[in-house]
Amino acid sequence: MSFIFQKAHILNPLGHLDLAGSLKVNNDGIIEAVVYGNEVLEAYPDDRVIDLQGQIIAPGLFDMHCHFREPGQEYKETLESGARAAAASGFTGVALMPNTKPVIDSPLGVAYIRHHSATLPVDLEVIGAMTVGSKGEHLAPYGKFSSYGVTAVSDDGSAIQNSQIMRLAFEYASNFDLLIIQHCEERSLTIGAVMNEGLFSTKLGLKGIPDISEAITLSRDLLLMHYLEKHKLHDTLIRPRYHVAHISTKASLDLVRKAKRDGLQVTCEVTPHHFTLCDEDLFLAEQKSNYIMKPPLCSQENREALLEGIADGTIDAIASDHAPHAPHEKECPPDQASFGIIGLETSLGLTITELVDKSVISMSRAIELLSVNPRKIMKLKPVRFAVGEKANFSIIDPNLLWNVTVNSLKSRSANTPFLNRSLKGKATGIFHNGKFIEAGSL
């Protein structure tokens, strides 16, 4: 049996595809035929024909920043529940951060996730820890990570504070062409703080996080990169690859722009909650704990700078920073709440609602940010729509209106500030690993 997806809008920025067409996939998950225009593919009696009526077929969405909590905190999320939420949201792959319990700081942790995710509907890429236990004291075994197919390392949630350790991380990672993903935070400025420092933190009587804490760490890292590229170590050229996680301020964006102009291998991502909300939204909210995250929701001025960075190409990817928490960790005063919100299931809808529908970016650019670029940054195989290629695509209805409710969420947790919000645009299915999965079936 083959699958025939008729009357689609085929959209793939990688191949400059943006036109009507149809696509046929055989029982092994390999693309058999691609036609454009109004041509209809011939169907045999045992073929399954899906009339998409203009819905988008896009390269499978990929979220490069997720927390599935397993091992150690399965009460918040498991590999299975996280994968189900991802598939229902149009993602065919995600990258998992290593700050589980225990931390994924050795090949044993990588092997655990690979073994327990082998039959899941989406690819789970493992990001290894940058330091042992993510304590910032001793480097993790990057060489062994690389031999296990790991392409990136991070101490997400706990930026390395020691500059010498950070220098060694750059040098060691560059030997194996590993991407360093940095959660930029100067922790001496953020101890005990819960939201952006400013007018609204003062009004609420909450200790604020100064937005310079992000730029200070980012600036140090970029200076180290400049130094290492300028001063060869034993005649060996050191060219680290560096990615800024969940960038949130204008100062950080300006640093990234300059670094790119200087030729450094620097990329950055933004979350949907940072380009949608600001600290005033937290101030006005009745249930404030679902607005508590790191980096904190920024000022309106910084949010506008993020929108500009998305539009002008400074920002390379959209990532959800999907961070599930149990009710008791969020249904509490904001200064006692755990940091983070779930984001996989609202990522596409917020991107279309806040960026595409408001003409900040095109739909093609949205797919670039949600699919093409994250894979490119992590040096994963690109997705192409051509005969003989493995089918890996998301089906998106960009006009579908839906409401975010607890019942609509597939994640084990429901800690999101977007509950009861109406969004435009939703994935209706994915095709990956030889299987067609309709979102409504999950």
Gyration radius, in Å: 21 Å
Given the helix and strand composition, which structural class is it? Answer: alpha/beta
What number of structural domains do the residues give?
2
Number of strands: 19
CATH architecture heading of the largest domain: Alpha-Beta Barrel
What is the highest CATH level, the class of the largest domain?
Alpha Beta
Mean pLDDT: 96
Largest sheet: 8 strands, mixed
Q: Write down the CATH topology of the largest domain.
A: TIM Barrel
Low-confidence stretches: none
The level of helicity is: 25-40%
Strand content: 15-25%
Distance between the first and last residues' Cα: 22 Å
Shape label? globular
The named CATH superfamily of the largest domain: Metal-dependent hydrolases
- Please, how many helices? 13
Task: Describe, in plain words, how this protein is organized in 3D.
The chain is α/β, with parallel strands linked by helices. It folds into 2 domains: 3-56 and 389-399 and 423-441, Roll (Urease, subunit C, domain 1); 60-377, Alpha-Beta Barrel (TIM Barrel). It has 13 helices and 19 strands. Helix 4 crosses helix 6 (212-230) and helix 6 runs parallel beside helix 7. The longest helix has 19 residues, at 212-230.
